[in-house]
């Protein structure tokens, strides 16, 4: 429910919907690369003019909207900004309140070792660890769900030591991706997918065989 999200944030970040409004957080799993992105690039090769992943997600979520012709469906993407340069929604907070993934933050560590350093939080999924992404939000403004019970996210990094290790790796060594394997995972990115996301965005077109 939108109210779960708004309840944990400053008013400046609130979503402008009634508290009981139904919303879905959209995640991409490791198999997205082979099952969605590559077929999309093959089919839409000539129409790809910006980030291929963003266009692929947009394409698939617009198809979801088409499944509900009688409903208003508002879509927000993780990369969208408001004119104020604030993100349209805070993806990790949304995933946490929806019970989709646990958002580990500095406040989850009792004996904070970082002093005045800025420490960013990170979501970990109980099945995919850090090998997933939060891609968007689907909102159904005409559907109110006062009866919906809030599921708690799975606290899969439950020890103080592991949480410190996770936040250290994510904040100071994120390039090597070790934080993604903080728990045993069921599936991770393929080598091809790792190479794609490790490549600077401007050079990714070439990897997919697209003209810049």
Automatic annotation (TrEMBL):
Domain of life, source organism: Eukaryota
GO biological-process terms attached to the record: cobalamin metabolic process
Keywords (A to Z) from UniProt: Cobalamin, Cobalt, Cytoplasm, FAD, Flavoprotein, FMN, NADP, Oxidoreductase
InterPro entries membership: MMACHC (IPR032037)
One Pfam family matching this protein: MMACHC
Record-linked CDD domains: MMACHC-like (cd12959)
Coiled-coil residue spans: none
GO molecular function: cobalamin binding; cyanocobalamin reductase (cyanide-eliminating) (NADP+) activity; demethylase activity; FAD binding
UniProt KW Chloroplast keyword: no
A single Gene Ontology CC term: cytoplasm
CC cofactor: FMN; FAD
Family membership noted in the UniProt record: Belongs to the MMACHC family.
Protein name listed in UniProt: Cyanocobalamin reductase / alkylcobalamin dealkylase
Native species: Cisticola juncidis
